[in-house]
Write a structure and sequence with these properties.
Order of helices and strands: HHHHHHHHHH
Structural class: mainly alpha
Helix content: over 70%
Shape: globular
Distance between the termini: 63 Å
Number of strands: 0
Strand content: under 5%
Length: 203
């Protein structure tokens, strides 16, 4: 049996926005077929739901095509990185809305049944300790995405990739930056999130 060594595998082509814009339908189709399966896997790992993942990826593709037609994308920008950032933003934004609706419903139900809001009744608001200990309940995960949503784009992308367990090398490749930049963005993102959580704990 012929085993292909990892080093022998051809590196995936990096498409720039200018190449996609000027290459016509053939180049766009090649780019789509090469990247869409990977985007779906990425979105599913975030959402844990194939239907929601497909919706988020489709929304990002449509927005990307719109930007191409407008000519507002940076010509030498990495198309794959742009779409991954867009998918991440869409998922986080959607998760924040889902969390808000869920939290409002739970609080409303709890007040109706007991007269005490759930946050007060539980005696255990989401804290930095919860995140640090890796408690991955549905509410904790949604709260994580809500907090990540306030971060700058690059920090947001790298924080989500880190949360999903991507290696330092993989994070650097997806974010199109060096390993040093990944460490810097991750450190700043964690510090900012911890600060926000600590402020919440004091309230």
């Amino acid at each position: 049996m012929n085993h292909e060594r990892e080093g022998d595998r051809p590196k995936p082509k990096i498409y720039t926005n200018a190449e996609i814009q000027n290459g016509g339908s053939q180049v766009f189709t090649q780019f789509f077929e090469a990247c869409n399966p990977k985007f779906l896997r990425f979105a599913v790992s975030l959402t844990k739901n194939i239907d929601r993942a497909e919706d988020m990826v489709q929304k990002s593709w449509l927005k990307y095509v719109e930007k191409l037609q407008e000519g507002t994308l940076k010509p030498d920008g990495n198309s794959e990185v742009y779409l991954l950032r867009s998918i991440t933003h869409n998922i986080i934004d959607n998760s924040r809305r889902v969390f808000t609706r869920y939290n409002a419903k739970v609080n409303s139900d709890t007040v109706e049944e007991t007269g005490v809001p759930r946050r007060q009744m539980s005696g255990h608001p989401v804290s930095s300790a919860d995140i640090a200990e890796g408690i991955h309940s549905k509410v904790i995960e949604e709260r994580f995405y809500e907090l990540v949503a306030i971060l700058p784009a690059q920090q947001k992308l790298i924080m989500v990739l880190d949360y999903l367990g991507y290696t330092e090398k993989e994070k650097a490749e997806i974010a199109c930056c060096g390993k040093g930049a990944v460490k810097s963005h991750l450190s700043r993102a964690r510090s900012r999130m911890k600060l926000l959580l600590d402020k919440e704990d004091l309230q």
